[in-house]
Amino acid sequence: MSLFSQLIPHQGIALDLACGLGANSLYLANLGLDTHAWDSSSVALKHLTKFANNQGLSIKTSLRDIENNPPEESSFDLIVVTNFLHRPICKSINKALKPGGVLFYQTFLQDKKSTAGPSSAKYLLSQNELLSLFPDLTILIYREVGTYSQRIIKDQGELNGDTALLIGQKPI
């Protein structure tokens, strides 16, 4: 995410959706954003809270089943989703962005060569699928690094292989 840090709002409310251990939450809180971290794992949230407290960072964690309880409409200036895919909530994620809000979404592709991430197609993106899941956003950055493109791209920066990355902005 730091590779595209110039696209992160300088202030506002950020959500790290399906945050896991919260690396993105910690990064956003360090930038001074009012950071919320949601996950379905109480263990992960407990570790995140402990680490954030040790670093003097304020992160509002919430144990939340985001598949059944997605974010509310127009509530976030920034939403970050990493290594998580539940297609039915994509419309809710789009609606949860405030006008001008930014979405950073990165997750695994079906066209992958590593064993990292899920193996079921239910949790893997097909080629260019991420674009179709967020048709109302203005695309700022879109990259896919699957098996084919890994052969031709030597310098991937911070974009993990076998993934798609979309950074989009909700129109004002």
Give an overview of the whole structure:
This protein is an alpha/beta fold and 172 residues long. It has a single domain (2-169), classed as Vaccinia Virus protein VP39 (Rossmann fold, 3-Layer(aba) Sandwich), CATH 3.40.50.150. It has helices spanning 23-30, 42-54, 90-96, 129-133, 147-152; strands spanning 13-17, 34-39, 59-63, 76-82, 97-108, 138-145, 163-169. The protein has a seven-stranded mixed β-sheet. The chain starts with 12 loop residues before the first strand and ends with a strand. Mean pLDDT is 87; it is low at 147-159.
Task: Using brief descriptors, characterize the structure shown.
alpha/beta; 5 helices; 172 residues; Rossmann fold; 7-stranded mixed beta sheet; 29% strand
| CATH level-3 fold name | Rossmann fold
Overall 3D geometry?
globular
Order of helices and strands: EHEHEEHEHEHE
C-alpha termini separation: 23 Å
Oligomer: single chain
Helical content, roughly?
10-25%
Query: Whole-number average pLDDT?
Result: 87
Order of strands across the main sheet = 3-2-1-4-5-7-6
Strand element count: 7
Given as residue ranges, the uncertain stretches (5+ residues, pLDDT < 50) are 147-159
Task: Tell me the major beta sheet.
Answer: 7 strands, mixed
Q: Give the total of domains.
A: 1
Per CATH, the architecture is 3-Layer(aba) Sandwich
- Counted by DSSP, the helix tally is 5
User: Percent of residues in beta strands?
Assistant: 25-35%
CATH class: Alpha Beta
- Secondary-structure-based class equals alpha/beta
